[in-house]
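Reply to dn_fold:

You asked what the input looked like. This is it:
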Amino acid sequence: MQELIPDSDIFTIDALYYQPELASIHIVKSGDRISLIDTGTQYSVPQVKSALDKLELEWSHIDYIILTHIHLDHAGGAGALMELCGNAVLVVHPKGAKHMADPSKLVAGASAVYGEKEFKKLYGDIQPIDSDRIISPADGETIEWADRPLTFYDSPGHANHHHCILDHRTESVFTGDTVGICYRALRYDGRAFVMPTTTPVQFDPDALHASIDKIMSLNPKVLYLTHYSALYPSTSMIAGLHEQIDDFVMLTQNAAESHGDSFESTLSKMIEEYLVRRCQNELPELDINIIKNWVGLDANLNAQGLAFWWQHRRQA
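and this is what came back:
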């Protein structure tokens, strides 16, 4: 556990999802009260317990468990944590609430993507949450929590059930997957390679562009990404993210036109090669094998999401 920004009372926990430093959970602390933002999976619960122990706090000190969205690398541990945190309320986007109360469709969808065996390995059991313990703030609504109000902003594009959270005390935003992903391994000397995530099945490039602009209009001092943690934004970084989204769309069109309906594997290779080249250009100091390893983690899922979007768009 690390408090990356001094005196922020925001602590990063490694969810240990798939591999270290791929997904983070954030503890927001106000006195002896806690809000937890994103949960990792049920296998992340010991990580949260260890962090609480270091802060000399208990499960009962957690007031809110907040999900940026309900993809299971962000929300898979919510049910297990809610059982442990008897005082906690789950905060989730209005379009995601019913799926946390009855996660059967979430499980079926993720199992279809990963296969049942890999699903169990990654996520374990997904437990339902009593709907009476779930709240869903509207776009722009503020929860007046302790001495640090939290405001929620609808931010579709990566997923329809996505919102970002502004912590007024630090002027920081917890962005989930809306403002891209930026692994620690892809940072060097104050510079960082940020890339979009277009995983299945609700990618919408126009909505994602708009959501990024919406979040950046808040003038956040720090972005807290689930993949992975604190990032100081810059104009060039955000411009590059917009450019990549447009390039992803162009690559999808090219792959579809040259390979017909069975273009996912080609698109995956194209996306990976594109991101490797771009990262090399932006961070030439990094070892090429490190770049390939981290960029390659997302290429296939990104291609699946882009292919689904393209096919749906063409049929509309």
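Residues 288-315 form the longest helix (28 residues).
Hope that clears it up.
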